[in-house]
Design brief:
The protein has 419 residues and is α+β, with helices and mostly antiparallel strands. It has 3 domains: 78 residues, Integrase, DNA-binding domain (Double Stranded RNA Binding Domain, 2-Layer Sandwich), CATH 3.30.160; 98 residues, DNA polymerase, domain 1, CATH 1.10.150.130; 200 residues, Intergrase catalytic core (hpI Integrase, Chain A, Orthogonal Bundle). α7 runs antiparallel to α8 and α16 packs across α18. It is rod-shaped and about 115 Å long.
């Protein structure tokens, strides 16, 4: 006979557990301590099993029967209700454990082998500052596109549209990582594109020092009374025409001072391609002075404030501002100055572009650019260093005349050589 509410309520504990059966495999077990547990006895795959359905009186007889019926429907469909419940518990636990911040940090750990320490710190700092607070604690499976949009729009609203674009790119990467590693089944932000989410950015160019102010600038640079390492960094930046980030992360192991070459590894280059920089006599002299300042540090330009870190991203531009060039010149702008002057003085555009580590976008021209033009670039960079010396001394500089033997041997037919 099926149980009644009165029987369940009045069931008394004994020295050993007592089982009172209802129907369909449902029974209540009364423990010696007085606790009462609803259980379901069933068979699955030829094995007898037990499933807990709750405790009395929190779970009434009526509720226990409903849970029994739900479980038996699963059994009829060939599903083990106990395994199904465990899977659901694991799913819920997985959602709770895998909040966005946890997955994002797993993504960072996965990627860090391809990053410099500086890049890793910059990525993590941006996520901590702008993403972890609004959505970091949310289970990644529950995050919708609208949550990410709100966070990115908040960054843009404070006038940091460039930061907003970079953070959006990183958030999208985290969600792609989450799909690959089965934290989520679908990517809710795969259709969020910067061009459609953020307002268009006005096209601007980094301020470059005007040629007519070069002599005055070099005089001010020579008189710079700030941190000597910053002065040397500015000098080497001008003498090599590399990007500021490539210079700041430079390590002594990259330099062959005897061979007068600087080999910048691919992971530190914007286009992820190794770049070889010829070093002029003047560049080598700057490095010799810098070596005395950096001591045994592996970094060429270590931060004077943070051990193990290079000089900061703003150090060079702050120095230029201190010299009176805020809004007039930037560290990155020295590349434009070098390119303008070198082109005006007759150097091969292909050699200049290769020295700037620009990638040829035209497929036909790219076939000719397999040569690094290293010999030509060594000539170019020594000429550039001499030019800067002459301008500092106020001398006039004669136009550069390309050597015929180099032009005939190195220049791709149809590009620099007249037909």
């Amino acid at each position: 006979m099926p149980l009644t509410d009165i029987q369940v309520r009045k069931a008394e504990p004994k020295a050993k557990p007592v089982r009172l059966f209802d129907s369909g495999g449902l029974y209540i077990e009364v423990a010696p301590s007085g606790g009462k547990w609803w259980r379901l006895k069933y068979r699955h795959a030829g094995k007898e099993k037990r499933l807990s359905l709750g405790t009395y009186p929190d779970t009434t007889l009526k509720t226990a029967r409903e849970r029994r019926d739900q479980a038996r429907k699963l059994i009829a469909d060939g599903i083990d209700p106990s395994a199904s419940r465990q899977a659901e518990k694991e799913r819920v636990l997985r959602e709770v454990e895998h909040d966005f911040e946890t997955v994002a940090r797993a993504w960072v750990k996965h990627q860090q082998g391809a990053w410099t320490d500086e890049t890793k710190a910059r990525v993590v700092d941006s996520l901590v500052a702008d993403i972890f607070k609004p959505i970091g604690a949310m289970p990644i499976k529950s995050i919708k596109a609208r949550h990410v949009i709100a966070a990115i729009k908040a960054i843009e609203a404070r006038g940091a549209s460039d930061t907003a674009g970079r953070v959006l790119q990183r958030v999208r990467a985290v969600f792609r990582f989450a799909v690959v590693h089965e934290y989520i089944e679908t990517n809710p932000v795969q259709d969020l594109l910067r061009a459609e989410l953020l307002r268009p950015r006005p096209v601007t160019h980094r301020a470059a020092l005007p040629q007519q102010e070069l002599t005055e600038f070099l005089a001010k640079l020579a008189a710079y009374d700030g941190y000597p390492g910053t002065l040397n960094a500015l000098r080497l930046l001008m003498l090599t025409a590399v990007r500021p980030g490539e210079l700041r992360g430079a390590r002594w192991a990259e330099f062959d001072l005897q061979g007068a070459q600087w080999r910048i590894p691919a992971e530190r280059m914007k286009m992820r391609t190794e770049h070889l920089v010829p070093l002029s006599r003047q560049a080598l002299a700057v490095l010799a002075t810098t070596r005395e300042l950096s001591g045994n540090d592996s970094l060429v330009f270590p931060s004077p404030y943070y051990p193990g870190k290079p000089i900061s991203e703003n150090t060079l531009n702050s120095a230029l501002a201190r010299m009176g060039y805020k809004g007039i010149a930037t560290a990155h702008g020295f590349r434009a100055l070098f390119s303008t002057v070198a082109n005006e003085f007759g150097h091969s555009p292909d050699v200049i572009e290769r020295q700037l580590a620009h990638i040829e976008r035209n497929a036909v021209r790219a076939a000719y650019h397999r040569s690094s033009y290293l010999k030509d670039r060594a000539v170019l960079m020594q000429w550039w260093a001499d030019y800067l010396d002459q301008r500092q001394d106020g001398e006039n500089v004669s136009p550069f005349v390309q050597r015929a033997d180099i032009a005939d041997h190195e220049a791709p037919i149809g590009l620099n050589k007249p037909q």
